[in-house]
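Async update (no meeting this week)

Hi team, since we skipped the sync, here's where things stand on the single-chain job. The sequence we agreed to prioritize is pasted below, unchanged from the tracker. I ran it this morning and attached the output directly underneath so nobody has to dig for it. Comments welcome in thread, and please keep replies under the output.
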Amino acid sequence: MRARGLQALVLSAPESLRWATGAFPGVATFWRRAGAAFLIVPCAADEPPIAIVGDLQAADFAAASGIVDVRSHRLWVETADFDPDAANGTNPLAAIRPSRRDPRPGTFDAPAAVALLADALAERNLSRGRVGLEMGFVPTADFPLFGRATRQVDWRDATDLVARLRAIKHPTEIARLSEAARQSMGGMRALLGALRPGLDAGAMTAIWREGARASAREQGLSPAGSDWAYIAVGGDGFAPGEAARAGDLIKIDVGCVIDGYSSDGGRTAVIGAPSAAQRAVYDALRAGFDAGLKRLKPGVRLAEIHAEVSREIQSKGLDHYSRGHFGHGVGASIWSEEWPFISADAVALAEPGMVLAFETPYYVRGLGGFIIEDQFLIGERGVEVMGEAPRDLFVAPV
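Output:
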C-alpha cells in the first residue's frame, strides 16, 4: 500500500474478506453486489481494521475474526430476542423483543452500508484520502453509490494489489490446499484403476469421489466438504459424452474443496490401446509439461514458462498449438482458477509461497480431450507436487 501511495485498502469481494479475516462475511455476499460487506485495512500498522457486515452475522463475524470494530447494516431477515422473564400467561409474545421496528430492506440496504463506510473513513481522516478499492469486483451499476457517499475520496483500483497479496499463501492456506490435492489425487488413482468400458462420466465421478473420501480416511483426515469434476468421455473433449467404449479418450479434471480452498488436477486415460494420433498428441503435451516443469522455479517469470511449453509442444509436430495459459494460482476464490496465470503476457514471477496448478490441456474434436495437470507449492529453492498420481497416458483394459 505504501508503494502505491495508498492510505488504506477497502476489501469488498467476499472471498477477499474471508481471506483477510478468516470469517464468513455474511449471506448477503452471495449476491456478489457491492455493499454487502466491507473491510477497511489502514496502511498504518498501528491502526486497527474496521469491518461492515450484515446484522445477521455481525456477532459471529466479530468473534471469528477478532476484529473489535464491526459495524452492521440491516438485512432482510427479521430477528428478535426472547426474554423469558417478560413472558406471561395473557400475552406470551410480550417476551419477544425485536431489534428495531422500522421496515427491513428486500435484501440488503447498499446505500446504508456505503454510508457506514463513509462514516468510518471520515473517522480515520480518510474522507479526502487515497484509498484502494477492488474495482474488478464492484459492478458498474453499484459504483455510483461510492460517488454519492464518498465523493471526495480518491478511489484507486487495487484489484491487482489484492490478487498479488493473496497469491502468497499463509501456512494454513498451504495446508488446506495440500490436503485437498492429496485427497483429489487419491481419488484419481482409484478412478484410473477402475476404468473400463461401459462407465459414463457420472459413474466415473462417483468412483473418483469415493476414492477421494477413502484417501482422506486412510490419511486420518476428514473428507473434503465439497468437490467438483469435469470428466469428458469420447471425441468431444468437453461434453460428458456417452458410456465409454474401446478407443475413447477420458479427460479427468477434478478438485476437492476444503474450507473454501480448491485443489486442481487432471489426467488423461484411454480405453484400450491409443490410436497413433492420440499417442502423438499426448506425447507432445507431456513433453511440453516436462519442459515447463524444469523451468518452474522460484524467481522465473511465468511468461518464460509459457514460452518454453509452447516451443516444446510445437516442436513435436503441433506447430499450430496455441494455449492462453498453462496454469494458474489456486486458493479460496469463486472457482479453481485465480491470479497469477502462466500466460504469454504474465509479469509475475514464481515466488516462494505461491501454489500453482500447472497444466498442458488440448481439446481436439473428433479425437477427445487431453490434460496433464498437477498442483505445486513454490518453495525457496524448488517446487513440490502437492498430490501424486502417474503422469503417463493411462491405458485402461478393454
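Quick observations from my side:
The two ends are 59 Å apart (CA to CA).
The longest strand covers residues 249-258.
Reply here if anything looks off.
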